[in-house]
Amino acid sequence: PIYTIQSINLFGCLIMPPIVGALTTGTEDFQIVMPGLWIMACSPIFIALLPNVFGACVWQLVLTIGEVLWSPRQDSWTASLAPIGMEGFFFAFGSSRELFGPLGDVVMGAMNEKYNTNCLDCRDQYGHFCQNLSNSNGTLQCVS
After folding, report:
1. What is the dihedral of CA 28, 33, 35, 40, to 10 degrees?
2. Which pTM was predicted?
3. What residue ranges in 28-132 does DSSP mark as E strands?
4. Which of 67, 75, 129, 143 fits 134 for a cystine, CB–CB 3.0-4.6 Å?
5. Run of H or E residues at 30
6. Which of 73, 79, 76 is nearest to 93 (CA)?
């Protein structure tokens, strides 16, 4: 039922933000954003305490409630922080991580390839990394 459980967040975030945005009109943006972030941040507690299908459903429901609170207000709060006439610059700068994020992935991949090579001899027959390695005859081998 994993895709059914994930759809709680999908449909909640599709339907609820306009409703919550309309119900919280007139409230300061930050007063809505902070509780939403805290609710969303606390949501994994339910999957940790109840590691079953019901716990996953409660986790997704609480996560969705938190996201629905902060997501309609994030852009308006960002715009309120910008100097008058520079709102577009603030949005562009804030979105730059989406543009430059893949560059960081490429650099990290190159560094891993150079300094943290994939050692196939360091794995057991299932592909898991060995806890104990033996260096016999100049080759690494898994020792059980």
Report:
1. 160
2. 0.61
3. none
4. 143
5. helix 29-42
6. 79
